[in-house]
Amino acid sequence: MAWHLEVEVREWSIGVTTTATPTASETTSAAAAQIRTALDELSLEEKVRLLTGASTWSLHAIQRIGLDPVTVSDGPIGVRGTSDDGGPSVQLPAPSGTAATWDVDLLARLGTLIAGEARRKGVDVVLAPVVNLQRTPAGGRHFECLAEDPHLTAELAASFVSALQASGVGASVKHFVGNEQETERTSYVSRIDERTLREVYLAPFEALVEAGVWSVMAAYNGVSLGGVEQTATAHGPLLNDLLKGEWGFDGVVVSDWLATKDTVSSATGGLDLVMPGPGGPWDDALVAAVERGDVPEAVIDDKVARILRLAHRVGAFGSDPVEVATPEPDDETVRSLVREATARSIVVLGNDGLLPLAPGSLRKVALVGANAVEPFVQGGGSAFVQPPHVVSPLEGLRRALPGADITLVRGGITERRAPLLPASLVRTPRGAAGILVEFLDSADRVREERVMTDPGALWFPIDDPAVVRVRFTTAIALRGDGRHVVEVGPVGAHELAVDGATVSTSEHRVGSEVVLDSSYSDPATIETPVDVHGEGHLHVSLTVQVIDADAYGRFVRVHLRHRAPGASIDEELAQAEDAAAAADVAIVVVGTNPETESEGWDRPSLALPGRQDELVRRVLAANPRTVVVVNAGAPVILPWLDEVPAVLWWWLPGQEAGDALADALVGATEPSGRLPWTLPAAEADVPVPDGLPTDGYVDYAERLDVGHRGWDRLGRTPAREFGFGLGYAQWRYDALEVEASVDESAPALARVELTNTSGRDGREVVQIYLSADASDPVRPVRWLAGFAVVDVAAGTSATVEIPLRRRRFETWSTETGSWTLPAGEYTVHAGRSSRDLPLTATHVIP
Ligand code: BGC
Fold it and tell me: Could you tell me if residue 157 is inside a domain?
């Protein structure tokens, strides 16, 4: 089939159809000619083969046409790489943290860093950023999204993607679209009205297509829109008509992993690439569908052209990769950028003058909290990376406060499950250090035997197809008097014997669903308590099924955990009080943990896990000079927030965690973060408390009122509003002028004058919001229209110019199916947050 032939793919109810016509730039370029030649040379089978991954992370190569494999891998806080032993990756703070900088230039620097990291790990396309919105604070991947606001999300993501791609590494922006929570994530249907979809949830994707993104990932969920209900991987109106037609997207639409459910509807619905592979619903079934005439070959050609174009862009097809610097993740240049970004992301939620700490004046410091002992540096799920190191708060504070005596106290555990079993405690039946692992066939014959010296989180890929079960045998040494608890967490069908007695059996076999719902990363455990006097042993024999997880491969998965006898939570709370009472200052680090924030599940509660609220109150009572640091990616309720003299939000802070925290505490770097979401005072106030599906549907009933707009509509008062962050300087907003601009894309320019009235140099995030008259009842009460980060020296003034883009004034008309610019008077508000807007001006759209 000739490549240039204009073939109508399908008539959709709205708008444009997709054709296999090359883009204008391509027809004149050598790449376009090469793509056309390749299409002429490839057989139908070869073309279709290119449309499904060759493996979990790579696409097929065809040497005959000069096509090298294109490798993809998860981001965006680092680059996961294509195998779990691929070495460490840089680990940035979680996206909600970097978003708190509101700094597009910083996001660009991080985009360049991640490009280098991708190249270093042999990755061509990074599966990031996530531009779904933080519609509900309970959403499991909240930490992985940037913000609750579409405009803030769009600006930050576009800057990151532009820098990444300028280095020749592709971005695959995800998850298109309506994927705002995790429960039933592979099956629910998001019901979003067209105006809301356009103005809110599609807005970041549209901005990224404008910025030239090379790939878009279609989500697991379905979308119900204007009478068309279809999975996101087969949604013709969204993929063909809107994304590729109206927006002119010329890149690759890739499925989320294992999201494609059907052959013909996804092929004609606009999906280009099924991942992972091999296998899945395309391959031979798609060849047959083309031969039957159910899928035109021109549709296949269009997909192949898109994949070849992507390969060309990343240097895998008729082009060379762009040269980029590839420093190791523990290189000084990398560390200082990550440290700067992390320190600047920190939000000052309260400060009565206790911060910044004066290093010379502190002799004794109490550092308290389970998250102070072990900070929670990244959320769970596909974005997880192995960092080269994690700087703990203790290390960071020791460097920043060299003269101080720092006491570290846990103050009670916060996780339900015991810690992973340490290697020092396990012996095989023959007395060697480790666990005996036997790979069994269907007749329970041992096909292979190994000794594993690293127990804890066990994960083995199984290459031998005859192996169907794996048996783990070990004796666990239980040292120390008191109650030990051993926890065994098998994934899937299993048989567990402890000291020769069967304690658990399950015939419930599992497959790829345990990857998709992330339950394999936090398996439920079977607990055995043992009372020990002197030294005891527990003999464990566990047989588990091999999980056949489709293109994720065959593997077994088990967690072994152990809790040694020790102080009770009550005793640890008392120790924390004592340490605080004896110190010049107490720093309490509270937060979430790997059981709380992860892909795969939503949060049932916004409370801090364990007895951390009590810990804060008791430490505060023991020492009024208490600083609380919140180590979480998504909102948690802080009932004591206004009782504590100083509170910092530290996010999920990544590899340089402790140094960045210390920089913020002593003011070596100003913690100039501003909340990219709303912090509720109470769970009952949250406008969209969970977003859980009802009968398989998630209704976006609040329409345009996402995040802070919902709080404004309902007139509720949060603990801290969207955009809030004190920093260490003080500000006076002096004047706001708005002038009409001749720039078609930005009809108004806001000019804000402000003064840093403090004695410290400071960094401010100037925010502009708009409101219109109430003639359009659906329009938000107020919406973010622009922002800028500005550094102002102590006691001086600055003027900031912020262009207000046309799209910020426009609304989507469902009657005309187009954007309209409603005429009339708009109020322009300038200030420090969505609720602290001291200056107003008017602007008339004629
Ligand atoms: C996630 C994606 C991710 C993919 C590959 C999916 O389960 O939803 O965000 O890119 O896995 O790891």
Answer: no
The helix/strand/coil state of 360 is helix
Nearest CA to ligand 1 atom 4: 257
- The count of domains in the chain is 4
Q: Is the pLDDT of residue 745 over 60?
A: yes
The residue-averaged pLDDT of 80-103 equals: 92
Residue type, 198: R
Tell me if 141 CB under 6 Å of ligand 1.
Answer: no
Q: Is the same domain home to 222 and 349?
A: no
Q: Mark whether 393 and 472 lie in a shared domain.
A: no
State yes or no: cis peptide before 150, omega within 30 of 0.
no
Closest C-alpha to ligand 1, atom 12: 382
Please tell me if the CB atom of residue 174 comes closer than 6 angstroms to any atom of ligand 1. yes
Q: Is 659 in the pocket of ligand 1 (CB under 6 A)?
A: no
Tell whether 427 and 365 lie within a shared domain: no
Supply the pTM of this predicted model.
0.95
Same domain, 709 and 791: no
**Ligand 1 center–CA 194 separation, angstroms:** 26
Q: Sign of the CA dihedral 97, 57, 63, 121?
A: positive
Closest residue to atom 3 of ligand 1, CA basis: 382
Render 358-380 in DSSP notation, one character per residue. -GGG-SEEEEESHHHHS---S-B
Q: What is the mean pLDDT of residues 787-810?
A: 98
The answer, yes or no, to whether residue 340 has pLDDT greater than 70, is yes
263 and 388 inside one domain: no
Nearest atom of ligand 1 to the alpha carbon of 515 = 7
- Do 687 and 615 fall into the same domain? yes
Round to whole Å and give the CA distance between 673 and 62. Answer: 48
Q: How far apart are CA 432 and CA 526, in angstroms?
A: 25
Q: Cα separation of 139 and 133, whole Å?
A: 10
Nearest CA, atom 9, ligand 1: 382
Q: What is the mean pLDDT of residues 346-358?
A: 98
The dihedral formed by the CA atoms of 581, 586, 591 and 593, expressed in degrees to the nearest 10: -80
- 74 in contact with ligand 1, CB cutoff 6 A: yes
Looking at residue 738, which CATH number applies to its domain?
Answer: 2.60.40.10
User: Quick check: helix, strand or coil at residue 152?
Assistant: helix
Residue 721 domain-assigned (yes or no): no
- Which three-class secondary structure state does DSSP give residue 489? strand
Element holding 350 (H helix, E strand): strand 347-351
Residue 621 falls inside a structural domain: yes
Burial label for 508, CB within 10 Å (0-12, 13-18, 19+), is exposed
Separation between Cα atoms, residue 89 and residue 85, nearest integer Å: 11
Q: Are residues 434 and 559 in the same domain?
A: yes
Sole residue written with tokens 């379905």: 222
Q: Supply the CATH number for residue 451's domain.
A: 2.60.120.260
Q: Using a 6 Å cutoff on CB, does residue 68 contact ligand 1? A: no
Strands 170-176 and 535-545: unpaired
Listed residues 313, 334, 360: the one ending a domain: 313
Regarding whether 556 and 428 lie in a shared domain, the answer is yes
Atom of ligand 1 nearest to the CA of 127: 10
Q: What is the CATH number of the domain that holds 59?
A: 3.20.20.300
Ligand 1 atom 8: residue of nearest CA: 256
Burial class (CB in 10 A: 0-12, 13-18, 19+), 677: buried
Q: Find the catalytic residue in 68, 74, 193, 256.
A: 256
Of 714, 740, 757, at which residue does a domain stop? 714
Q: Which domain holds residue 437?
A: 423-563
pLDDT at residue 613 above 60? yes
pLDDT band (50, 70, 90) for residue 2: very low
127 lines ligand 1 (CB under 6 A): yes
> Is the residue at 244 inside a domain?
yes
Q: Is the CB of 128 under 6 A from ligand 1?
A: no
Q: How many residues does this entry show for the chain?
A: 846
